[in-house]
Amino acid sequence: KVTEHLSGITIPFTLYAHEDVQTGFEVLTSTGEKLKLAYSCWVYYVNFTEETNGKYLIVKESNGSVLEINTKNDEGPKDLVVWRILIDNFCYCIMDTLKGEWSWIKTYGGANGVTTPNEFKSIVKILTQNEDASINYEVIVDDTLFSMGNFQIEILQGSYYGKIKLILPHLTSPLSENVWIFYFGDPLAGIQNNNTLCFWNGGMDGFFYYYQKK
What is the pTM of this model? Predict the structure, then answer.
């Protein structure tokens, strides 16, 4: 019922759920009003990644009817950290942009902050997505398979900035364990571009590795 209710939403969102059927559940609305539900129900909360609005979805246990309560400038329930995540469609939305082949074109950074061309041929192939939202990839270096596996995306800001863990043929921070901050576009210039993928190793004098979609 709930997934069908949200099927038309195209912007990134996360769907949270209470583990158990609730009785006497109270919702504090954006206007400060309390709504108390007298019937047994399943309770869900929808958090939109790039907005301050959210919504509660209340599914009546007896007949499955859905009550929708929209909120504004709402941070969600205080105990949201213990709610279960059912859907995080940011990863599914971003897959449309990520999927394909990306070729290394240049590097920027280091103590002197200089731009250098790529030293060898490196291609990152973003292949398919699994049911748990993890993404399968391959890295090809000089026409030879360098690494392969899958990664999850941790969103950090907006829909063009996140954190992933994958093995690239580049210098990484000793403490990062192959964790990269990635951007669509040029983070140093503040330019968003879905045909450019930039990996930063996170160091203060670190390097930014730029890939272009083939």
Answer: 0.60
